[in-house]
Amino acid sequence: MMDRAFFDSLLFRIGWRLLVYPAALYAVFSLVFFWLYAHPKRYVGTYKPEDFGLKPESVALTASDGVRLDAWFIPNKASKKAVIVCHGYPMDKSDVLGLTFFLARRFNLLYFDFRATGRSGGFFSTGGARETRDIAAAAKFLKDRGFAGHIGAYGFSMGAATVLLSGDPLIKARVLDAPYADLGGELDYIFGRWGVWRKPLIALMKFWSLVFTGVNVSSVSPERAAAALKTPLLLVHGDADRQVPLSNSERIKAAAPAAELWVVKGAGHGENWYGAGDEYERRIGAFFEKNL
After folding, report:
1. pTM here?
2. Please, are residues 261 and 235 in contact by the beta-carbon 8 Å criterion?
């Protein structure tokens, strides 16, 4: 047994402080990062459907856990098909209007703010885990409006990942623009420049996620969800994407071989519509027309 004098010594008291204090400080530091990501600053864009010649109906959706979602329903009386449009993190529904307004020529559209973003309720954003409940609320709204059997979903970035995570049987076809394949892997990529500090930071952020949201980040895997899907899937990804690299869609394609992968040359994150132009509108419109 160690002599009691050792534990009372100055060397021991300094030593344990050098270990415990930095560890505690790093835990607090990781909590701050988790909080910034899970409770993002609210962004409310200035674009409105009217700016694109569309006439929206303002509606409110309610997710299964009671979270209220702010939404626009854009009717097309000439169509019996509808598409749910899902924005990326940490933006709001107005952010994807410019990428998707062309769909209103052929389909009824439903835009909404995910929980903890835009004008919707909710406190924590969970990278797609709880947001699947928001998509389910959107699909139910369209079913109640008479579109059962003809509902599709389009998602960008986190919205794309969430559309894939959602196995809602009401959704008959999915278009994913720049999805991530795995939430834990995306965090690892984001913090890639942190070197040896990356893994402990991510491990602690995952711990805080479990504590505050009940979400196991390691279980949030669109790639695994893709393997279980039986409905048509179109992946669109730019080969110059530095936020969510093309390898993410390639992994999803490998998990779901029947999926179609369209690589847009020279396009970065959020640039596929700009890079492909009319071809973007043609291919996505035709995909939904065929499969809804």
Report:
1. 0.92
2. yes
Q: Could you report the per-residue pLDDT of 239-276, keeping only the tens digit for each? A: 999 999 999 999 999 999 999 999 999 999 999 999 99
pLDDT number for residue 19: 57
Amino acid at 4: R
Burial class (CB in 10 A: 0-12, 13-18, 19+), 62: middle
Nearest-angstrom CA–CA distance, 123 and 74: 27
Q: Where are the domains of the chain?
A: 1-38+183-218, 48-181+220-291
First-residue to last-residue Cα distance in the chain: 74
Give residue for tokens 């534990």.
7
Question: Could you tell me which residues come within 8 angstroms of residue 33 by beta carbon, excluding any fewer than 6 positions away?
Answer: 201, 205
User: Would you call the peptide bond into 90 cis, given omega within 30 degrees of 0 as the criterion?
Assistant: yes
Chain-centre distance of CA 226, in angstroms? 15
The pLDDT assigned to 260 comes to 98
Q: Note the Cα 153 to chain centre separation in Å.
A: 13
Q: What distance in Å separates the CA atoms of residue 239 and residue 247, rounded to the nearest whole number?
A: 9
Note the CATH architecture for domain 48-181+220-291.
3-Layer(aba) Sandwich (3.40)
User: Strand, coil or helix: what is 166?
Assistant: coil
DSSP class of 58: E
Query: CA quadruple 127, 43, 123, 39: dihedral positive or negative?
Result: positive
Cα angle value 42/48/51 (rounded, 5°): 150
pLDDT digits (tens, 9 = 90+) for 205-214: 999 999 999 9
Mean of all residue pLDDT scores within the chain:
92
pLDDT of 105 = 97
13: tokens are: 């008291």
